[in-house]
Specification:
- This protein is mostly helical.
- The protein has a single domain, classed as LemA-like domain (de novo design (two linked rop proteins)).
- Helix content is 75%, strand content 0%.
- α1 packs antiparallel against α2, α1 runs antiparallel to α5 and α2 runs antiparallel to α3.
Length: 189
Amino acid sequence: MWEWLIPVLILVALVAVVGIYLWATYNSLVQLNVRVDEAWSDITVQLKRRADLLPNLIETVKGYAAHEKAVFENVTQARAETISASGPADAGIAEGHMQQALKSLFAVAEAYPQLQASQNFLQLQQSIVDTEDKIQASRRFYNGGVRELNTKIKVFPNNLFARNLGFHEREFFEVVDGAAIAEPPRVQF
């Protein structure tokens, strides 16, 4: 008489377990996705901060080395690329160009001892160094979030339904020209 109840209870328990698993997985994917978005926002804030500092730094150096026009143009172009970058891939390319431009700018500054003694230049230089450190920290946090999200999307059985739920793998923020960041901009006080 109650023989039909056992298979029904097993089926209900199985559906409940699958439902709970899907619910928990979906929520964790949403959380990871939001964390990656937040981390990317942190990177863009720091890139904008650096871009906002550069015109002041350029003007300060121009006062001492006005004939270094190509260096200033390269920094200005790299700044424009950074501001207009639309995602991690574009930002990675722009970051490589920015690092090269900053190295050139600081190399020019080293040739002018009176510039090295300028309090304004030293403050701007320290702000750039501080911002570079923040960019690197934000980049590590972002890439860690991307790694977690991508792993969660790729593992079985999540890979069977994650893409259908609208989740996709995200790009890492990697500098395309690795040589550009192999040695950070040299800053001497």
